[in-house]
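Attaching the record inline, Q. Sequence:
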Amino acid sequence: MKKILVIEDEQFVRENIVEILEASGYNAVSAPNGAVGVTLALQHQPDIILCDVMMPELDGHGVLQALRGNVLTANTPFVFLTARADTSDLRHGMNLGADDYITKPFRVSELLTAIETRLAKKVTVQDMAEEKLKMLRANISLSLPHEFLTPLSGILGFSELLISSYDVLSRDEIMEMLTQLNSSARRIHHLVQNFLLYAKLISISTEHNKIRIEHYDAVLSPEHIIQDVIISKAHQESRMDDVHMEICDDIPIAISSLYLTKITEEIIDNALKYSRSGTSITVKTSHTDRMYAFEVCNTGRTLTPEQIAAIGAYTQFDRQVYEQQGSGLGLSIVKKLMELHDGHFMIQSADGQTTVRLEIPVVSEEMQQELS
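Structure, as predicted:
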């Protein structure tokens, strides 16, 4: 039996809703105000919450913020019951993570239909999440052995050589082996980070978390993050002369600095990896009132339209032809981050040239006011 929490300060309305729900086969729990409602939601963890907007002590928006901020109720379907239906009120509730609004007074059929729809959607989301996790586990089992064993073999081999031949090795030989050990360790570290991040992104790929991500995260100065990451990566590969940047003026964008750094690292890594030293890599940014565009273009290995369409976790192309390090997770992480932030991810690859273009939403005026 599905459990529904009703938070409503008007006793007659609250009791009427509870009666309707119990007559329809639901287990109903009720609260007379928002503060009690939050406590009961955490205690009972209902399948869906119906909540009035205008209440003393803690209003509906406060209830929703409290519940979305708790892991136990972050994904619980939440429907507002309200006598108000103006646009600003609706937008504010939706930005906080509400699933639906029902305007009072309502018909019984309207209430039950809204509940059934949200419960069905919750089941669908859970099924999709479970299917993605199954695919994740399957892909890990295929990719993990090789991607971990290759650098681990290098670490074991060089460390054993250092131990067995330390007395006869020159200083330069020891330094070369230590450099190789460090490189292999960094490769494993990056691989583990990407596995964990991709698993995290899959687990939060729900409507509620998407809203929370896109609404509350912002970078006020993307120019500095992008430039710093690209310069650092180009220095590591001794290719500073190959990289040419055309960075536009700063504008706030709706993504966290952590995720923008990760996106930039993965995109520039791919450009450096699949282009030869001495060939040009061009980085450009631009923006409109709504979107911030970040574009990286390199010459070298290209992808077919089929390969671009098949970009996903742990997918590698033509490994028998190209020596390709990495699990194939980089572009998959970038693609998933763009989906979660309502951005766009595009690749064009032909005639020896590949261009990756990202479009990230610019911070809205409403969000700028909240951040200030």
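Residues 20 and 108 are 8 Å apart (CA to CA). Residues 207-215, 313-327 have pLDDT under 50 and may be disordered.

More tomorrow.
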